[in-house]
Structures are given as structure tokens and as C-alpha cells.
Please model this.
Amino acid sequence: MVTNKEIVRDQTQLIRYLENFVLLNIEPKLDLIDEINHWRTKTKAEVNFIIKRGLDLYPVEVKARQLNQPVYSKSLRSFLSTYQPKKAFVINLSLEQEDKIGPTEVTTLPFYQNPFSPTL
Model:
């Protein structure tokens, strides 16, 4: 029998693995990227990765679950509202979809599709 504690531990590990997988797909593009950061406010709003390229910022949110529809956290929406980037990415286990939030094109993709092309 699987306990709730084991499920939580497994979910936490899955999140870490997926975040590392995404980071490993970004790192080979470092010659095209100025910086990779994590964004967190004093109120604890956070976005997993912020890719900086020139003056452009690209937030990357990682969701370690199957999505039937896009999920845009308050944190991601806060970042989009504050910085109004051209593009944002939500990486998940299954869903592929394009949306627009304000001026930002938001691409939701399964983790196995690498969105970090030279042109972003």
C-alpha cells in the first residue's frame, strides 16, 4: 500500500527531475543566452527559470503533471504583468498549446519538445 507521504515524496522528486531536465535542455544554448535565473518576490511569487537574452526575458514555468488545459500560476501572471515579455513557456508532461496573455505569447509544451531553439 502506498502512503500519502510516499506520493508527496515521489511528486517532489518528479518536480526536481523535470526542472533539471528542462535546465539541461537550456544549458547547451548558453552561447545564445546571456543569463539563466530564478525569479522570486518578497511575497514568494516565483517562476522556475528566467532566460535573459539581450534585453529580452523569457519566463519558463515547469509543471510536473499532465495538463488537459493550460495552467498559468499567479506567479507567472505576476511576472508577465510586471515585465511584459514577448514569449513565455510552460513545460508540462503532456499538453501542447499556444495562448496570449496580454502582449505575451505563451507556449505550453510537453517536456520532450525542446522550445529552446536558437531563435527562441
Notes: Residues 4-26 form the longest helix (23 residues). The two ends are 45 Å apart (CA to CA). Residues 4-110 form a domain with the Trna Endonuclease; Chain: A, domain 1 fold (CATH 3.40.1350).
